[in-house]
Amino acid sequence: RKEVEQDPGPFNVPEGATVAFNCTYSNSASQSFFWYRQDCRKEPKLLMSVYSSGNEDGRFTAQLNRASQYISLLIRDSKLSDSATYLCVVGRGGSYIPTFGRGTSLIVHP
Amino acid sequence: DTGVSQDPRHKITKRGQNVTFRCDPISEHNRLYWYRQTLGQGPEFLTYFQNEAQLEKSRLLSDRFSAERPKGSFSTLEIQRTEQGDSAMYLCASSLGTGNQETQYFGPGTRLLVL
Question: Is the Cβ pair A44, B43 closer than 8 Å?
Answer without folding.
Answer: yes
